[in-house]
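ugh ok so i messed up the first submission bc i forgot one of the chains. this is the corrected input, ALL of the components this time, i swear. 293 residues overall. if the numbers dont match what u have on ur side tell me asap before i send this to the collaborators (the ones from the other lab, u know who)
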Amino acid sequence: MLILTCPNCGLAADETELSPGGEAHLKRFGPGSEDADFEGYLFHRANPKGVHFERWRHAYGCGKWFLAARDTATLEVFGTYPAQTTEPPAEIITRIRARHPDWSPT
Amino acid sequence: MSEMSALPGAVAGGLADISELGLQGMVTLKADLSAPETAAAVRAATGTAVPDRRRIIETETGAVAWMAPDELLILCAHDGADAMVTSLCNTLKGRHYLAVNVSDARAFFAIEGRGAREVLAKLAPVDLHPESFGPGEMRRTRLAQVPAAFWMTSGDSIRLICFRSVARYVFDCLAISARDGGEVGYF
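and heres the new structure output, hopefully the right one now
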């Protein structure tokens, strides 16, 4: 069972209280962008086996979005942080590096 | 305004006593909870301060509960909810806020007695051990398959709110959970 701490209400929320929102930190390509960029924005996801940054919503709780860093293979959670963050915070990167020394953000 | 609650007079017994509590005034306030103007408006309308994160403060006429970083739920008399909305609108005029009377969108239940924690713990993914959950905390969560919110009064009885449209489902879930013979004996 996946348990994520919602940074908005501070609760350790069970997976069944949350709804998943897919990969985090995507750059939006909207009207006027190149077709290839738009296609990438719509369809292409990293889907790694390993470290992954995700969007989650505390759907049954406070209803707010937040971001989480976790390992998709081991389900280890590296941390959660506010949705109003454009890149993973340094402390989360440090925690990931401690477990995966050769990991680098792509 | 509804003249009848969702399940008037519904009661069930067993490990705990479940009862529908009838009409309850409820007002949702969405606003910047850190703003002094919001605090002043809440104090003027309810006589209490803005509760801290996940807390509920009981007042003379009801309670004020923290629902989200930008949302409060104010409990008051059913016939006083419109006046509560008017009071909030008057004091928050010109600011970015929303105050709505949601009384008739909700159902309100009590779970009382020795097995109250256990009845609820079987339905919600919440640690209800007395060391983890006690009076003064508002918990929004999932109850079986629907959203609900509950808290404990100072008298150790549990109050639970859900959407009116799922009132029968929630009542039946609680009643089944409270049936004699279903003790887990964890708490």
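quick check: The two ends of chain B are 40 Å apart (CA to CA). that seems consistent at least. The interface with chain A takes residues 53-54, 67-69, 71, 125, 140-142, 147 of chain B (CB under 8 Å).
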